[in-house]
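Hi support team,

I'm filing this because I wasn't sure whether my run with magnesium ion finished correctly. The job status page said complete, but I'd like someone to confirm that the output block is well-formed before I use it downstream. Pasting the exact inputs I used:
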Amino acid sequence: MLNQIYPLPMPLQILRPIDNLITNHLTLGISGFARAGKTIFITSLTQALLTADAWSKQRGQGPLAHFGPFERGELISARIRDDLHPQRPQFPFRAMRDAIATGSRWPEATTGVSHLIIDLEFRRDCWIGNGRKKLQLEIIDYPGEWLIDLPMLSMNYSEWSKECLNIAKLPERKLWVKPFWESLNNVENSHTDNEEKIIELSRFWREYLQHAAAAGYILNQPGRLLRPDHLRDSPILRLFPLPEEMQSTPLGQTINSRYQHYCQKVIRPFYEQTFSRMNRQVVLVDILRYLQLGEKPFNELQTGITQILASFRYGKGGALDWLKGIKTTHVLFALTKADHVVRGDRLNLEQLLRRMLAFVDEKNTLRATTLKHDVMALASIATTEDRKTISPPVREILYGLPAGYNELVQYDPGGIPLDMPPDWNEIQFQYLDFQPTKQLMQEPLYRGFPAINLGRALNFLIAED
Ligand SMILES: Nc1nc2c(ncn2[C@@H]2O[C@H](COP(=O)(O)OP(=O)(O)OP(=O)(O)O)[C@@H](O)[C@H]2O)c(=O)[nH]1
Ligand SMILES: [Mg+2]
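And here is everything the job wrote out:
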């Protein structure tokens, strides 16, 4: 544990003292669509806090660089609280850390909501002498797919069905939804509300959503069919849209009432019981993957972010008008996997997300609310090293281990596009999926994982008011 106190490095004295800035308990929500990097972010952040003392003589360096309290020597200790709320699903921190640190592999996808509580202790100076201050940080990992459901609360079943079926008819999705249509055409008698048929139709609808999600498409409702968590196999998830002519049949009426149920018993409670408790939120966005996937998934990502923004607008007339006691004050949109672009391009990456947010939030309503928000490009675990070519023209390149390679290579991913929307004919950027490797990690069990901007993100989230 940290036990030594170091003088403040001069430039950081301008950061406000921790004592003024934090309360005793902060809930930090981490969200993002599938594979956005939530698990890696929580794992690396937790490991950075637990191993901070290894960097106590190297302030300005290490995974917590730019986290004000660490830089000023105020962070004394961090410890995971396994004893609190043992009935809740705990984020599997140790298994994830060990998979990366000792197995040099990325961990499996996670499902549903999980929590991790960390006690942080800070030194504080006050006029009566030196003291200590504790902050209990509760981190909640939850799927971005659930935020995509928010508009369902302001639609009736008929409007929702129409919208979903229109999306399903898009050429890029048509093939995946075919079995659902075929099954629907075989409904022999829609005057019966046979549960067997409902199970079959909801399975086809879920499989269609799974195909779309695997290809990177975002607009997949109901989101719980993709991330059911504790509702797996519950009848409430036997839900799918129906064409207008079938909505007044007994089958239509049954599904209609299940839709109401889903909105009231699944979507609303998530916002009331979990979402509204979060003081700070991080939305992780993997723009690089979408640049690679191409124009249509990229456009859906943009629409998906527009929908997600509705969850962070708390002004009058917003989609969450009905929700009382929302605690979120800070929202960070973080572009993940910044270790896949060369150093000079990381600011451009931030600019790209900023432009995307400006594009989808054209009325600037996010800024107009009381929320504080920021945009950052980060790598929770930097798997590459920044290098330069030796012979002219000298340019920046990456050095790391791409998936499927046996040895580390130097690689130029090309520049990322600066325009929003991007000019798809001009895109040169090609990213390789870099893996964690022992050669580029220095004792991660003791020194944390190498990261880009992780400490800066933490500073915004817990050390700024
Ligand atoms: N190089 C690099 N790759 C990353 C980083 N973060 C995530 N990845 C890659 O993205 C994949 C998904 O990351 P996760 O953290 O598991 O994503 P998730 O959002 O938790 O995904 P789900 O559990 O499916 O919702 C990983 O397996 C890595 O391949 C990072 O900081 N650097
Ligand atoms: Mg995960």
